[in-house]
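Below is a filled-in request sheet from our internal design queue. Each sheet records the structural input a requester submitted and the sequence that came back. We keep these sheets so that new team members can see what a complete request looks like end to end.

REQUESTER: design group, bay 2
PRIORITY: normal
MODE: inverse folding
CHAIN LENGTH: 187
BACKBONE (tokenized):
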């Protein structure tokens, strides 16, 4: 899709519950205080299912209808977070333990939303590596070395049951949750 003045960014995720988001925020704020990193502070702690995509704001209502219609065979998932890791020298994150059911949910979401918005949402060619970002984009290689020296010695352990996905929109530079819903039918 070609970006226009009326296009907006959206993404779909599993947001961390408030108590865990507060713990994640402590680490994001440490990165801001130590290195001036602010990018990750623009969103709540989350696991991305559908990465950011551009959509005409006039289509938001259609997106929300499609979002609320999404269903997966996956039932409630247990999300286990354990320790820190990184992608290259630009992204620091909290590790999410491997979970085949989470991978299946992501695949269901990717298929569904790609079919609903084929020009805006493309299948991701990268392997699915669920994580909760604490610093990205505004981390220089020098900052990364110092930050990783800190986080490689830190621990982080948290778990939560998940059965709700969130639709987020970039509003005034901050990712804001505009809709939530359970992905499975109650049994």
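RETURNED SEQUENCE:
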């Amino acid at each position: 899709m070609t970006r226009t003045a009326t296009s907006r960014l959206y993404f779909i995720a599993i947001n961390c519950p408030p108590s865990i988001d507060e713990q994640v925020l402590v680490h994001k704020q440490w990165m801001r205080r130590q290195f001036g990193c602010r990018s990750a502070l623009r969103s709540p702690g989350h696991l991305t299912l559908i990465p950011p995509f551009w959509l005409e704001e006039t289509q938001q209502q259609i997106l929300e209808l499609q979002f609320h219609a999404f269903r997966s065979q996956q039932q409630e998932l247990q999300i286990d977070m354990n320790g820190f890791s990184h992608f290259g020298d630009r992204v620091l994150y909290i590790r999410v333990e491997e979970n085949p059911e989470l991978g299946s949910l992501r695949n269901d979401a990717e298929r569904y939303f790609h079919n609903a918005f084929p020009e805006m949402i493309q299948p991701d060619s990268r392997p699915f590596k669920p994580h909760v970002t604490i610093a990205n984009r505004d981390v220089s290689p020098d900052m990364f070395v110092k930050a990783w020296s800190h986080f490689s010695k830190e621990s982080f352990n948290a778990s939560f049951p998940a059965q709700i996905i969130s639709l987020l929109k970039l509003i005034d530079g901050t990712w804001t949750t505009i809709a939530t819903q359970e992905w499975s039918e109650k049994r």
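SHEET NOTES:
- The two ends are 38 Å apart (CA to CA).
- Residues 87 and 145 are 13 Å apart (CA to CA).
FILED BY: M.R.
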